[in-house]
Amino acid sequence: MATTSICGFSFGKDLIKLNYPVVEAVRSVLPICDRFVFAVGRSEDGTRELVESIDPKVEIVDTEWSSNQVDGTVLSEEANKALRAAEATGCAWGHYIQADEVVHEDDLPLIAGACERWAEVAEVKALLFKYLHFVLDYQTIDPWMYHKASRINRLDGSCDIIGDACGPAVRGYAGRVGNGDGYLDKNFLGSHVRWAEQGGKKARIFHYGWVKTREQLETKFDMVRQLWWGTLDAEEKKRREDNKFGRFIDRYPILKQYSGSHPAVMAERLAQHEPYQPKRNRWLNPRFYAEVLRHGFHG
User: Fold this and answer.
1) SS3 state of residue 82
2) What residue numbers bound the domain in which 200 lies?
């Protein structure tokens, strides 16, 4: 346990319906957390009871989601309810973890060590994690999805979660760096961000939100349609859906094979989920090279 205090925080509703690994997500970070707060929206599937059963350390904040259906911003509204509750605990750092994200036990010392290292450097507001995005099964990674995001931030009132709950930003930022919203990504506000790392090894987030059967995938798509595009007309909704999901399953054969270990808390889920379908080595697939020409090689 680090001597500088850490409060984990998360949010969500209807997480059983979405088949999110919320139990594994919370348990993966609890060993380095002094407190943990979870903002649970009114659910229809027993999510509150599930979250309550995870560990006595988990404190629940009951919430009502707004009717906001624009660009997923209702998610940041809920994440900020959890963040405010975490700030009220008096802990120094907040470990933000989404309900479909899991931290590897090997990386916990890196995270705790980074919190210690930067505790007295007030300019550092957030710590950055490397991302692994699993798609359709636990053997396949999409290397063209984003590669990093902040998941540790100071609980000093200086940060808000923004966008579709993508991560923390400096509250009231008035500068012009990046896109001007104060998002604490290393590309934008590098002076305020450091990696959660030790000896060059970076802490990872294992993102499992797209590990789905076809039926589960459609349930998640329904959620995205509602929370991101609910107010759009049918034509624009269809255009955005095609852009985001049109090649989702189609691209599976050219995605990267994962050969490393998974967090131990995921063992049961891994055992229950088969590979989506057989696929050849992507280096033997001409479509892989076409994708690299369009979007570059990202691993």
Assistant:
1) helix
2) 1-299
Provide the terminal-to-terminal Cα distance of the chain, rounded to the nearest Å.
34
Going from the first residue of the chain to its last (299 residues), give the mean pLDDT of each consecutive group of 10, the final group possibly shorter.
Answer: 82 94 98 98 94 97 89 91 97 97 98 96 95 94 92 96 92 86 86 94 96 83 78 74 66 91 97 85 82 82
Tokens read off for 148: 């990093």
- For residue 273, the tally of other CB atoms under 10 A from its CB is 18
Q: Give the number of domains in the chain.
A: 1
Structure tokens at 139: 């053997």
Question: How many other CB atoms are found less than 10 A from the CB of residue 235?
Answer: 8
- The owner of tokens 């802990």 is 91
The pTM score is: 0.91
Residue 203's φ and ψ, nearest 5 degrees, are -70, 145
Here the CATH number for the domain that contains residue 278 is 3.90.550
CA 89 to chain centre: 22
